[in-house]
Amino acid sequence: MRASGRYDVIVVGGGPAGATMAWALAQQGIDVAVLERASFPREKVCGDFVEPAGLRIIERMGCADALGLKSRAKIDKVRAYYGPHIAYQNDVAYYDGEAGMPPHGHIVPRHELDTALLENAAKAGADVIHQALVREVHREDGLMRVDAKVGKGNKSFTAPVVVGADGVQSVVAAHAGLRRDDKRHIGISQRVYLDGVEMDESEACIWFDEDHYPGYGWVFPTGNGRANAGMGMLSETTERFGISLQQSFRESMDRLKYRHPGCANAVMATKPLGGAVHMYGGITRNHFAGGILVGDAGGFVDPMTAEGITQGMESSIIGASTIAAALERESFEEADFARFDDDFRDYFDHGMLYLSFYATMMRNRHFGDFFLSMTQQGFERAQTDREFARVCGTGFGGLNVQPAAIASQLWTGIARHIAEGGAAVLADLVAGRGIPRDGFVGDWNLWQSGWRASVDDDRAWHMSWLADIVRAAMKLGPSFTRKENPRLKGPFAAELES
C-alpha cells in the first residue's frame, strides 16, 4: 500500500469478480488497487461449484495449477430428487467440451478459490490491501475518493475510476444510488460442510421440495468424505409466507440423511452460514460517473440457479475494456462508462433474460405443485431423451442457453402431453371409467388450484405477478433474434470483438 493512496483504478472487493477485474487491468499495465475487507483465506457462503465456463477463465488466467485442478474430482454427473423420488441420475448432458471448455466442473471451496485468484491479481501487479473496510465513496473534482479503515487506522484512496465488486451490500452501489433491495430478485441461502459423506465424487446432487419452493437444495462432494450442502429460496417468498429459511434448512438436512444413502452418517462439520445474492433480472444499470459495478454488486447471478462465480468473472473481463478505454481518453463521466451496460447486455441478455422470464413465472409459491410436477416430468424425460437433456438442461445450470431450441422442445413436449392426455380422457370416458385425475388432467387441475389459491390469497399481488410476466416476456427479443449465445465463445472473445 503506497503512502499517497493514488491509483488509476480502485477495486472494492477481492472476491472472484474483484480479483478478475484487478488481474485484467494489471495485465494491461494499469495501476490498480484492491481493497478487501477480510484477511484471506476466509469463508464465503456458496455452493463452491465452478462450472466449465468458469474453469475456462481460470485456465486463461493461469490459476489452474495453483488450485490443483488436475487432482480434483471431475463433476460430470448429477442426481436430482423430487421429494424422496430420484427423477434424474445421469451425466450432465450439456457438458460436451465445446468452445475450449472442459467437459466437467469442479468443487473448489471458496476460501481456496478466492485466495488463489486474488494472489494471481497481485502477481500481475495489482496492489492488494487486506482488512480494508470501505466506509464511504464519493466523487470530488472528477476523482473518486474511497475512505476506509485499514487495520487499526484510517486511510483515503483516490483514483479516477472505482469498481464496485463488494457484494450485495455494496458501498460503491450505495454511492451511485444503485443498491438493489427488490426481493423479487434476491436469493437467500444457508450452507454447511458435512463430514462422513459417502458418495460418488463425480456426481452433484440437487433436490426440490414443496416446503422450500421456489428454491432448491444441493450436496456437492468436495472430497475425502466431505461435502458442501445447502439450500436457497427467493427472499420475497420467505417474507410473504413467514418462512424461516434456517428452519427449512435444518429440516432439509434431516431429510437428506434418509433420502441420499451416502449421507446417512453425515454430520455437520461447520456451523451453517447464511448469504444472499442479487440476480440478473433485477439489474437496472451498472455504470455511473467514475465507475461500474461487477459481480454480485452488479447482479451478475443466474436467475434460476443463483450461480454467480463464472458470471462475476465474465462481467469483470467485459468491464475491464470499458475502463481501459476511459483511462485512455482521460474522461470519466457517466457517459464514458455506458458502454459497459451495452457490452454486458450484448453478452448476457440472450440467455439470461430467457431464464429470468421462467424465474418470474415460477416465483409464485401457490403454483408450486404445478411447476414441481412439470419440472419433475422434464427431468424424467431427460433421463432417456438425451437431446432433450442436452438442450433443455442448460436452463438449469448450463452456459449455452438456446431459447429457440428450448422453446421448441418444451412446446413439442407440451403438445404431446396434451394430445396423450386428451386421448386418455376419451378412452376412459368411452370405457365408463370417468375422467382420470392424473396425466394432463392432473396437471391442469394443479394449475387451476394454484390460480385460485393465488387470487384468493392476494389478488393485488397476483395481478402484479402477471404484469411482471408480461414485462419479462416483452424483453425476450434478444433471446430469439440471435442464433448463437455469445457466452459460448467466452468473455475474452467478446472483449476482442468490442
UniProtKB/TrEMBL annotation:
It comes from the Bacteria. Residues 7-328 form the FAD-binding domain. Pfam families: FAD_binding_3. InterPro entries: FAD-bd, FAD/NAD-bd_sf, Geranylgeranyl_Rdtase_fam, Geranylgeranyl_reductase. SUPFAM superfamilies: FAD/NAD(P)-binding domain. GO terms for molecular function: FAD binding; oxidoreductase activity, acting on the CH-CH group of donors, NAD or NADP as acceptor. NCBIfam families: GG-red-SF. PANTHER family: CONDITIONED MEDIUM FACTOR RECEPTOR 1 (PTHR42685:SF22), GERANYLGERANYL DIPHOSPHATE REDUCTASE (PTHR42685). This is Geranylgeranyl reductase family protein. The lineage of its organism: Bacteria, Pseudomonadati, Pseudomonadota, Alphaproteobacteria, Sphingomonadales.
